[in-house]
Amino acid sequence: MDVLTRPFDAERPAHGPLVPFRLGILAPFGGIGLLAVAAGHAGVLSLEVMRIVGVGSFHGGLLAASLAAAWEGAPGWGPAAAGLALSLLVAAGACAAMPWGCLGYVLPPIVLASVALRCGECRRMGLVAGTPWAALGLGVAVGGFLGAHLLLSASRTLGYPLRLGPPAGYLSALLYDVGANVLSAECFFRGTLFNRWQRRWGFWPGALAATGLSILRYLGDPALPGVVELTVGAVFYLALLSLSGCALLWYSGSLLPSLAAALAFFGAYRTLEVR
C-alpha cells in the first residue's frame, strides 16, 4: 500500500547517513551520566543529586541528538540543546527539593516549543504548527485505548490495584513523563530515527527498528519494576505504542499526535499501584 511506503514529506531526501547525527554528540551527556552514577555509588554524591544529573544527561542527550539531526549538520542547535538540558536539571532539582516541585517539568516542553516556533529546522523532526485537531484526537484515542487495555489487563488479570492515595505521587510521575520521559523518547525514536529510517527502508522496517531501540531504552530504565510478567507486558504495550506513534507521524506529518498518544497511555499507566 502506498500509505506505508511513501515518505510523509516528499521534499526530504530518502537517503543519507544511517544515524542522522554525529554519535559524538551523545558522548559528553553519557560521560556525565556515568560519572554521576559512579560518584553516587561511591558516596561522593547523594542519590538525589545522582538522579538529577541522570535526568539531565540522559534525556538532555536524546533531545540534543534530535536537534542536531534536525539541523542536518548546520550550526545553531547547540544553544537550544543547552537550554533544554538546563531546563531538565532545573525541573529534576525542583522535583527533588520541594513539594509540587515536579511542576518544573513543564519547563522543558515550553523551551522546546519556543525553539520550534523560532527555528524552522524543527519541522524536520515533526514539530510543526497547525497540526489538524482530528490527528491529535486520533493520537489521544489510540493512547487512551492502549492505556485502558493495560489497566484492564493489569488489574483484572495480574491483580495490580489502582492508586487510591493523594494525587501528588500520580501528578509527579505524570509531569516527569510530560517533561522528560515522553518528550525525549518521541523526539528521538520517532521524530529522528524513524523519520530517517522509513525513508531509507520503508515504513515497516523503519518502524520496527525504531521500536526495537525504544524498547531497549525502557528495559534499561531502573525505574521499571523487575517483575517478569510486568516486563513482558511492558514490551508488548510499548511496542504497540511505538508502532502506533510511527503510524501517527507518517499519517499526519507531525510529531504531536504521537506525543498525545504516549501521554494518554502513560497517564493511564501511572494510575496503577506498581511496586
Note the topology.
Elements: H1 26-41, H2 47-71, H3 78-97, H4 107-118, H5 133-157, H6 167-201, H7 203-219, H8 228-252, H9 256-269
Helix pairs in contact: 1-2, 2-3, 2-6, 3-4, 3-6, 5-8, 5-9, 6-7, 6-8, 6-9, 7-8, 8-9
C-alpha end-to-end distance = 44 Å
Taking pLDDT < 50 over at least 5 consecutive residues as the criterion, the unreliable ranges are 1-7
Number of strands: 0
Topology pattern, helix = H, strand = E: HHHHHHHHH
Count of individual helical segments: 9
Mean pLDDT: 88
How large is the share of residues in beta strands? Answer: under 5%
Radius of gyration using CA atoms only = 18 Å
Q: Residue share in helices?
A: 55-70%
Using the alpha-carbon principal axes, give the shape.
Answer: globular
Structural class: mainly alpha
* Biggest beta sheet attributes: none
Keywords:
globular; 275 residues; 69% helix; disordered N terminus; mainly alpha
Could you describe the 3D structure shown?
With 275 residues, the protein is mainly α. Helices cover 69% and strands 0% of the residues. Helix 3 (78-97) runs antiparallel to helix 4 (107-118). Residues 1-7 have low confidence and may be disordered.
Short synopsis of the structure:
This protein has 275 residues and is mostly helical.
